[in-house]
């Protein structure tokens, strides 16, 4: 099992809309490296052998010229297009600009992923330990298994100093996920407080863990995605301009029916993102410190 291809799937179709086009993405590294560059570097260091970028087709050339060109001599690279017209037979969508959601993005990668794989967001910094933990799991999970996993972060390691954040707080039993409670989380005098979006009471969560959309799947997940997609379209037929097909919703459904399991693998890594514009200089300073500590080279791709 240990010699099989190990794939990293990066959901990047939303980059263009969030940043006004790839050319406008600002670098965070000393040589204009993007956050996604550090995830790719960590994945290669951990032992991943292939990357599939999920992007909009119109982003293809500029994506290859920037991010893709830096790494094609270092790891196998393929591109899957998240096309909103990638729908089950008989379905059409009204005009909409934004992608159809994370579950649809992963489904669009079906033809490119034949072995166990890791899914991440393009604009999140996950840290080396998370990729090491992920590949250890993926190297040993059977290819036809319905036993998936997620890398879970301590909430305190995912906070912004500049305001509240949204987190999926994990409820677990014997290191397996039983529920994700979407919550608004913020630092207060009493500590870190979660305000569940389902209306439950606020609660301190200093030592709780959260999902940061770092999921480990086998190709069996595509069966669930395909069988559930028409149900999503029917349920949201009056709101298809805005509705999104989320992987977290699909996982919760099949966890409750006990058709899948989701092992929770905790990481000591610190997650960073740019939720607020003030978060960017914080991340840049952190990266400079990591470079000083020789975790990353000064120039990521040209040592």
Helix content: 25-40%
Mean pLDDT: 91
Content-based structural category = alpha/beta
**Number of separate strands:** 13
> First CA to last CA: what distance?
32 Å
- Oligomeric state of the chains? single chain
Tell me, what's the shape? globular
Low-confidence stretches: none
Q: What series of H and E elements makes up the topology? A: EHHEHEHEEHEEEEEEHHEEH
If you compute it from the alpha carbons, what radius of gyration comes out, rounded to the nearest whole angstrom? 19 Å
* Major sheet: 11 strands, mixed
In DSSP terms, counting alpha (H) and pi (I) runs of 4 or more, how many helices? Answer: 8
Summarize the structure.
The chain is α/β, with parallel strands linked by helices. Helices cover 28% and strands 26% of the residues. Helix 2 packs across helix 5.
């Amino acid at each position: 099992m240990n010699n099989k291809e190990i794939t990293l799937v990066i959901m990047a179709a939303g980059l263009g809309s969030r940043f006004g086009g790839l050319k406008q993405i600002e670098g965070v590294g000393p040589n204009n490296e993007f956050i996604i560059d550090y995830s790719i570097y960590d994945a290669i260091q951990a032992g991943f052998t292939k990357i599939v970028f999920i992007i909009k087709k119109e982003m293809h050339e500029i994506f290859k010229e920037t991010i893709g060109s830096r790494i094609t001599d270092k790891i196998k690279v393929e591109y899957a297009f998240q096309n909103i017209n990638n729908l089950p037979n008989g379905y059409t969508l009204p005009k909409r600009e934004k992608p159809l959601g994370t579950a649809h993005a992963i489904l669009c990668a079906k033809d490119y992923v034949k072995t166990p794989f890791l899914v991440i967001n393009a604009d999140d910094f996950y840290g080396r330990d998370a990729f090491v933990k992920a590949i250890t799991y993926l190297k040993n999970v059977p290819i036809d298994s319905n036993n998936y996993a997620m890398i879970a972060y301590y909430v305190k390691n995912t906070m912004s100093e500049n305001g509240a954040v949204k987190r999926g707080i994990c409820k677990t039993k014997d290191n397996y996920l039983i529920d994700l409670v979407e919550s608004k989380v913020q630092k207060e005098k009493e500590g870190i407080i979660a305000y569940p979006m389902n209306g439950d009471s606020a609660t301190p969560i200093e030592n709780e863990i959260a999902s940061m959309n770092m999921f480990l799947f086998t190709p069996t997940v595509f069966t669930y995605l395909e069988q559930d997609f028409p149900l999503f379209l029917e349920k949201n037929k009056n709101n298809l301009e805005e509705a999104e097909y989320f992987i977290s919703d699909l996982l919760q459904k099949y966890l409750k029916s006990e058709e899948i399991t989701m092992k929770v693998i905790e990481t000591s890594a610190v997650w960073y993102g740019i939720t607020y514009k003030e978060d960017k200089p914080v991340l840049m300073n952190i990266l400079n410190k990591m470079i000083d500590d020789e975790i990353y080279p000064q120039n990521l791709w040209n040592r």
